[in-house]
């Protein structure tokens, strides 16, 4: 058996086309365009490449977009002042501070400084809290992308056994919360595994939908997966570079084994990653509509 591929890159392209049409109509009717600033501190090559991809997507959708690069030794106070500037900038609807930040900067302090209404990553405790009680204004981008892939691939989530491997604030925790809520692409029974889980395989083998965000290259093997399960691989592990300097990526799931067992699986690259960026764009369009009181 060979699993159906859930092609995130293709779904992402389709959603971006929908968004581009929406941006165009907002511009025509209201004379405004969604504004996104991506703030990059330092010169981490992976971060540079992600931010470049976000800027490219923003340009293609017709956003007003600003790339703000800051030196690695910027002080915390100056970074906070910069965020305050964008909080007050009426052309900016969404603020993204690329993580990780240098060690001398308190990441939480920076994330808490972003106006929750411009927090298109949905990392501010206000937005995390609203998600928890099932009243989100913005969904965190990677979990939103995962849920969208489940919906658009026709995966039944209601009553499904969902097992999440990983408990990060960015992926594991929020996707677990989202899958247990009432509503479309949710209503699941959720188990969360992490580094202290006694028997991870016991849990993964029970999953109808297995979501892996462990941060360990090819952590989940083929025989950890229930035959017919849907597997979502959130891992983006750089395992080397090609001769011409392109990053070689592998997921957190041993893909070649897993595809023989699962009924459907996301590839890496081309799976969850492109969806993450697309959901950032979707949140920015939403922010723009809220800021300009535009109803659907
Ligand atoms: N404030 C903040 N928000 C983020 O959303 C955020 C962040 N910081 N820091 C880093 C992580 C990582 N992340 C990815 C986004 C897209 C791909 C993606 O598009 N990956 C492509 C491949 C890209 C490549 O080839 O390098 C794919 O999987 O097909 C991956 C990873 C967002 N993050």
From TrEMBL:
Q: Tell me a GO biological process for this protein.
A: methionine biosynthetic process
Q: What is its EC number?
A: 1.5.1.5, 3.5.4.9
Keyword Transmembrane belongs to the record: no
Matching HAMAP family, A to Z? THF_DHG_CYH
Q: What is this protein called?
A: Bifunctional protein FolD
Report domain Tetrahydrofolate dehydrogenase/cyclohydrolase catalytic positions: 6-121
> What catalytic activity is recorded?
(6R)-5,10-methylene-5,6,7,8-tetrahydrofolate + NADP(+) = (6R)-5,10-methenyltetrahydrofolate + NADPH; (6R)-5,10-methenyltetrahydrofolate + H2O = (6R)-10-formyltetrahydrofolate + H(+)
Gene Ontology CC terms, in alphabetical order: cytosol
Q: How does it assemble?
A: Homodimer.
State the family named in the UniProt similarity comment for this chain: Belongs to the tetrahydrofolate dehydrogenase/cyclohydrolase family.
The cross-references to CDD domains, in alphabetical order and at most eight, read: NAD_bind_m-THF_DH_Cyclohyd (cd01080)
**Out of the domains of life, which is the source?**
Bacteria
Q: Name one GO molecular function term.
A: methenyltetrahydrofolate cyclohydrolase activity
Q: State whether keyword Plastid applies.
A: no
């Amino acid at each position: 058996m060979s699993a159906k591929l859930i092609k995130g890159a293709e779904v992402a392209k389709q959603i971006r086309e929908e968004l581009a049409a929406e941006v165009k109509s907002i511009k025509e009717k209201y004379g405004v365009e969604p504004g996104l600033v991506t703030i990059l501190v330092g010169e981490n090559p992976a971060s540079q490449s992600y931010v470049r991809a976000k800027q490219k997507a923003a340009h293609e959708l017709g956003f007003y977009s600003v790339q703000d690069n800051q030196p690695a030794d910027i002080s915390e106070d100056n970074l906070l002042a910069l965020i305050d500037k964008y909080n007050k900038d009426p052309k900016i609807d969404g603020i993204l501070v690329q993580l990780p930040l240098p060690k001398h900067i308190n990441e939480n302090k920076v994330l808490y400084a972003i106006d929750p209404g411009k927090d298109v990553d949905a990392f501010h405790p206000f937005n995390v809290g609203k998600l928890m009680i099932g009243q989100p204004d913005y969904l965190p981008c990677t979990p939103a992308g995962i849920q969208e892939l489940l919906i658009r691939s026709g995966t039944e989530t209601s009553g499904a056994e969902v097992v999440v491997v990983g408990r990060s604030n960015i992926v594991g925790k929020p996707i677990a919360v989202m899958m247990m809520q009432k509503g479309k692409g949710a209503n699941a029974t959720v188990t969360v595994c992490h580094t202290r889980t006694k028997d991870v395989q016991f849990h993964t083998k029970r999953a109808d939908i297995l979501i892996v965000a462990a941060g360990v290259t090819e952590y989940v093997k083929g025989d950890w997966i229930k035959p017919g399960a849907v597997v979502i691989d959130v891992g983006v592990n750089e395992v080397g570079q090609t001769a011409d300097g392109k990053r070689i990526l592998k997921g957190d799931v041993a893909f070649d084994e897993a595809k023989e067992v699962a009924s459907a699986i996301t590839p890496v690259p081309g799976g969850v990653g492109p969806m993450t960026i697309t959901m950032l764009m979707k949140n920015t369009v939403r922010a723009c509509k809220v800021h300009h009181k535009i109803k659907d």
